[in-house]
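Late entry, evening session. Most of the bench is empty. Finally got around to the prediction I had been postponing all week. Sequence below, unchanged from the version circulated by S.P.
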Amino acid sequence: MQLVQQRAPDGFARIKDVLTEEELAGTASGYKRIAGFDKDELNARPPIVRPSPR
């Protein structure tokens, strides 16, 4: 957020005009990790719900 404010203090029309694809991906990855939604971390955990018997 601070970086966007620094680069576009008067606002912007599209976030891609302010941040690169790499910066957007890095930010999203960081938020996912902090929130507990990182794909690799989730896949490494045991299942929360056990499969139903067939």
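Two things to note before I forget:
Residues 2-44 form one domain.
Helices lie at 2-7, 21-35, 39-44.
Will write this up properly tomorrow.
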